[in-house]
């Protein structure tokens, strides 16, 4: 089937098998290996991306379901060489150990903060309960999300402005891929 998807600001048109999952499309066709596969059974959240602005586990979504949609991966967050405030907060709060869960955690945290810009600790833990960290570094992950929330609050300075500027647009050049 032929799909057209906007990923991290670039439009792609590809032929895909109907059974191909979105995470495999992102990694194998587009080379977006920042999105990782932990379980491939929708348990761990490592593969979390945004589909039309909402987090999804991309191992549980078919590539054909993303046809006509906007996908944002961890690789599409930085702007002008500046990390997204949530990425920066993970760095500042040492919220990763091996880093395998980190892309999915960050994508889920951004979605969580879009729904609740000032979550308390319980709300952060609840919002991230679908994302597993095998290094069990949850304490600093929660701290990082709350730190990001403060820095992204309206009027909090450059980080807040960066978020408002960071909407993915579909103006980027198009790319037509081949394949089966
Ligand atoms: S790889 Fe998708 S949830 Fe684990
Ligand atoms: S930092 Fe290793 S799995 Fe979370």
Automatic annotation (TrEMBL):
Name used for this protein in its record:
(2Fe-2S)-binding protein
Look up the domain of life of the source.
Bacteria
Question: Which PANTHER family does the UniProt record give?
Answer: OXIDOREDUCTASE WITH IRON-SULFUR SUBUNIT
Matches recorded under InterPro entries: 2Fe-2S-bd (IPR002888), 2Fe-2S-bd_dom_sf (IPR036884), 2Fe-2S_ferredoxin-like_sf (IPR036010), 2Fe-2S_ferredoxin-type (IPR001041), Beta-grasp_dom_sf (IPR012675), Diverse_Oxidoreductases (IPR051452)
Query: Which stretches make up the 2Fe-2S ferredoxin-type domain?
Result: 1-77
Record field: compositional bias (Polar residues):
163-173
Note the PROSITE patterns from the entry: 2FE2S_FER_2
Starting at the broadest rank, the lineage of the source organism is: Bacteria, Bacillati, Actinomycetota, Actinomycetes, Pseudonocardiales
Give the span(s) annotated as Disordered. 152-180
Q: Which Pfam families match?
A: Fer2, Fer2_2
Organism of provenance = Kibdelosporangium philippinense
């Amino acid at each position: 089937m032929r799909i057209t998807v906007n990923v991290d600001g670039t439009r792609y048109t590809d032929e895909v098998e109907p059974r191909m999952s979105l995470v495999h499309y992102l990694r194998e066709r587009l080379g977006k290996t920042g999105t990782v596969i932990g379980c491939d059974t929708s348990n761990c959240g490592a593969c979390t991306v945004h589909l039309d602005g909402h987090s999804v586990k991309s191992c549980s979504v078919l590539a054909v379901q993303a046809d006509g949609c906007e996908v944002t991966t961890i690789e599409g967050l930085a702007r002008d060489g500046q990390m997204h405030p949530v990425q920066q907060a993970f760095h500042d709060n040492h919220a990763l150990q091996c880093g395998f869960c980190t892309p999915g955690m960050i994508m889920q945290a951004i979605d969580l903060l879009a729904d609740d810009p000032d979550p308390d600790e319980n709300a952060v833990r609840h919002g991230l309960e679908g994302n597993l960290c095998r290094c069990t570094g949850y304490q600093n992950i929660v701290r990082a999300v709350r730190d990001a929330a403060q820095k992204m609050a309206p009027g909090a300075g450059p980080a807040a402005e960066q978020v408002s500027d960071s909407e993915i647009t579909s103006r980027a050049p198009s790319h037509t891929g081949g394949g089966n």
